[in-house]
């Protein structure tokens, strides 16, 4: 996909990069084709099976970027090291050896990646070794987690997750302490959304013919109900929707309202108004999804039918 995209825009791919991802490191697309059966390949070639372009980035990823703000990188790295050492006994005793070796290898990579996120944030002048202490840090720390993901992976959908209610805890605490005003809170969310709108990936012309607006589906799932019957709508849910007024309509971030009959009436009215005015919201049936997962902390990857 990258090679084709570079050619389309009269750019030449670094030969060493091509060599690495051809001879040493398999791409996701190559992995998919390696497992196709002969019948599937024939059906694709004949047009019986159709879909997205072959070189389309197939990943749909939702990282829990909230963890960076909640715990800080140092704690997350310490936890990964504890996970790594907990497998020592299984390794030495040959318990499920292949899976144990693979898991230790993956955890080691995760530990290194967390350190790289910390280094990246330091280059921006931020120390994210510890937990966020206020709303501004919570938003910034969470964004750093997302920024690290989009810098290292150009999946078809790089969803943001379900952060609005999480961030509201920090914002509400600062509001009550008199550290910020409601205008400050809205501006911080505006700035976060602005950063999400700036993300771009290298895509092929075939991709652009299918989708307009350079979408990356930075999906933020908003609202929904808790399994205990309480709504997960907060003031911050309104702030995210309000960015479509403060900065105008945009396909990104892909704001998704988790719709439930039990949502607060004023939020349902506001979401309906925003939809009519901007045509920029998508909806998902929370009353169906929540019981299916038996969990109120799920999120949407990519898009759903509007």
TrEMBL record:
Residues 1-306 form the PFL domain. Gene3D superfamilies: 3.20.70.20. It comes from Salmonella enterica subsp. arizonae. This is Formate acetyltransferase 1. It is an enzyme of class 2 (transferase). PROSITE patterns: PFL. Its EC number is 2.3.1.54. The gene is pflB_2. InterPro entries: Auton_GlycylRad_Cofactor, PFL_dom. Pfam families: PFL-like. Keywords: Acyltransferase, Transferase. SUPFAM superfamilies: PFL-like glycyl radical enzymes.
